[in-house]
Design goal:
By secondary structure, the chain is an alpha/beta fold. It contains twelve helices and 15 strands. Helix 5 packs parallel to helix 6.
Length: 392
């Protein structure tokens, strides 16, 4: 907790320095978030937004000429409230509310320090107050979008689910999260009925909200795609027909590898049956395979980690797993975490791209992630909305 408070103090100090002043950044290499590459650029920031990008000339307040600069990364699927206790055990929400709030805020700060300037946390009620405190400048952290809760087969009849969707929006949620299937350990079979899924996605669309769908297997994913939901999460066991449907319906897809590795790497901390760990291990190859198949079909792949306890601040490892294990092209992985992710959030005109008029969200790494994806581990500079939160 002492470490966390020092984080907050440092972040508040760094954030206070930007204001509406003009900031110049000299960048050795710029990846614009849409697949473009430019060398020796100067980025000018004013009032929290990018004013200009062009050939470098003269001095700069921040010298990043030996680094690669990208739009601040976007993680479309995290759980900021998940954390380990002092004994490195997953608490499962059994701690005191005030401790849960502090851990959620700390995880947000760790995520920002790791290069992620926007996240979608889906979903716990505590995400809302933390989101708002970050937005007000009282806490350092990424821009947070949250569903506040999760909707599943036990949430009621189709009519009750429609009412719950409306209530969730009224309570301040940014999106809706549903569980169309069971979890990995339970087989990933469809759990919500077609009618429940249609109610959730139909009502959300009617009131202008997006729907993120937990779907491990093919049946639940198909029902969600046909219902007009926004994004399919995980999808380790979906088939080619589902991928083709995603293309036809413009559905976003978010396969996650970090979360599986994180569970397996922290076995003693999670009180799961051995069969669940085996199911997770068995899902590694299918998850890598579905990402390859999605790329071959030009599905709109976004970048989410499903970061839970133990993964916050290490979100960038998802880049490494996707490139190393699934054969993703480094530039494709980066675009997934920038302009494509921004589009999936309905924010493609504000974030995810280095260009005039966009929010000044920037991350710089030592090295070249296109040549060596592990460069994403070497974050040296983080700016969000024109405020510098990390500089080496």
């Amino acid at each position: 907790m002492i470490r966390m408070l020092s984080f907050f103090a440092a972040g508040a100090l760094a954030g206070a320095l930007a204001g509406a002043q003009t900031i110049t950044i000299a960048a050795g290499t710029v990846l614009d978030g849409k697949g473009g590459v430019a060398r020796n650029q100067q980025i000018v920031v004013e009032g929290g937004k990018i004013r200009s990008v062009g050939p470098g000339r003269g001095s700069a307040q921040y010298d990043l000429r030996g680094m690669t600069v990208m739009p601040g990364w976007i993680d479309t699927h995290v759980h900021l409230n998940w954390h380990f206790d002092a004994n490195h055990k997953y608490t499962g929400g059994r701690d005191k509310p005030e401790e849960g709030a502090l851990y959620t805020a700390e995880n947000a700060w760790l995520t920002l320090e790791g290069g992620f300037t926007t996240v979608q946390s889906v979903g716990a009620a505590i995400d809302g107050p933390v989101r708002d405190r970050i937005k007000d400048g009282a806490l350092p952290g990424p821009r947070v979008l949250t569903s506040l809760r999760q909707i599943n087969e036990r949430s009621g009849s189709p009519a009750e689910i429609r009412e719950l969707v409306r209530r969730t929006k009224a309570e301040g949620a940014d999106l809706i999260k549903i569980f169309a299937t069971t979890g990995m350990g339970a087989g990933g079979n469809q759990s919500m009925s077609d009618e429940q899924i249609q109610a959730a996605c139909g009502e959300a669309k009617a009131i202008g909200m997006r729907v993120l769908v937990h779907a491990i297997g093919a049946a639940g994913a198909k029902a969600a795609i046909l219902a007009g939901c926004t994004s399919i999460e995980h999808g380790s066991y979906i088939d080619d027909a589902d991928l083709d449907l995603m293309v036809q319906h413009g559905t976003y897809f978010d396969p996650n590898l970090l979360v599986i590795h994180n569970y397996l790497d922290n076995r003693p901390s999670f009180n799961f049956p051995e069969a669940s760990f085996q199911a997770l291990e068995n899902a590694l190859k299918p998850t890598a395979d579905v990402l390859r198949r999605a790329r071959a079909r030009h599905v709109k792949v976004v970048f989410g980690t499903d970061a839970v306890a133990g993964a916050h601040g290490r979100n960038a490892e998802e880049f490494v797993y996707r490139v190393r294990d699934a054969g993703d092209k480094p530039m494709d992985a980066i675009v997934s975490a920038t302009s494509m992710a921004a589009a999936s959030l309905g924010m493609g005109d504000r974030i995810g791209t280095i260009a005039p008029g966009f929010e000044a969200d920037l991350v710089a790494v030592e090295g070249d992630p296109i040549a060596d994806i592990t460069a994403v581990r070497r974050v040296a500079f983080v700016m969000k909305g024109g405020k510098v939160y990390r500089n080496h």
